[in-house]
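Hello forum,

I keep getting stuck at the same step: I have a sequence, I want structure tokens, and every attempt I make locally crashes halfway through. Rather than fight my setup again tonight, could one of you with a working pipeline run this one for me? It's a single chain of 388 residues.
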Amino acid sequence: MSAWVLPDHIADVLPSEARHIEELRRLYLDTARGYGYELVMPPLLEYLESLLSGTGRALDLQTFKLVDQLSGRTLGLRADTTPQVARIDAHLLNRAGVTRLCYCGPVLHTRPDRPFATREPLQFGAEIYGHAGLEADLEVLHLALDSLQAVALQNFSVDLSDARIVPALLEGVALSADAREALHRALAAKDTSGLKTLTQSLPAPVREALMTLVDLYGDVQVLAQAEKAFAAWPKVMQAVSELRHIAADLDAVHTTFDLADLRGYAYYSGVRFAIYVKGASDALVRGGRYDEVGAVFGRKRPAVGFSLDLKELVSVVPEQALKAAIRAPWGTAKGLREAIATLRANGETVVCVLPGHESEVDEFNCDRELIEVAGQWAVQAIPAGQAL
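Reply #2:
Ran it on my machine without issues. Output:
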């Protein structure tokens, strides 16, 4: 095998795209800061039990594992940053009131989560800890929408669901972990025939409710159907009421519902959302409420947030024009170096052409050049067709 071949679904990011991703990272962190979110930087790896506590089997299967040469304990390379941020909030910050945190860093997946996806996403996320009301859910949802609008994305769609609905319908029903997981898979896949088989042994009201649930996806009319079908389940009615409240707040955004959607990690405990954008093969943003995730760290706190992959985001945002730059000769003359330093201090990009070479760059458009005129260095435009 050639030395330059990379593993499947792992790729280098080349200059022009790398610069664009970095600009998106800065923009998103600045947008979150505008909402009052503080930046944290969790480590890429830590002890496995800390990474996976309370997160379910899906995250376990996505996590690379290795042995720590110092302690002999098993380490994990993070596949998701939320458990780490929950640990920071619960154990390190330990604040009494509301805490807003954001982050941006790589995560690693043992398998791509969908066809053609990278196994090394650059995950940006924002999370609120300490507030159980819908105000926190709405804030992170609006931050997610604002961050998409900030990169000129339009015509997106928000899909809402709630992780409490299925557990409420199955409350009091004795099911093994494997049987419950099989039910979740059938509901998420809208597998009506499979669901019918799996629910044969369940009480009739529960079976009928689950068979109804699998068809409850679409526009706001879905909520009216759910209120009619699940009137006997108070917890389901509360979840539907909260979904209706959030949808009303998003009246200017195209909103859909999928009450049987159970995709994603197992730590979600309430309202969930996914944001779809034209050009993306799947949801670009996923988020929701996960009030239980901090319990394993000794401090159960209300929590809600979202995350997205900047590498995927860059593939759907409009292409940016090349940055204008100035071409300059290489030299050691004091006047030349001072002129170049002054231009760079003023925010200009100056590309020095080394002797015997022309500058080959992917992300700059050298439309001006620095030349010497009567002993003084001056910038002049390069004629069209000659710019690098």
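The chain has three domains: 1-153+285-320, 164-261, 323-381. If your local run keeps crashing, start a new thread with the error log.
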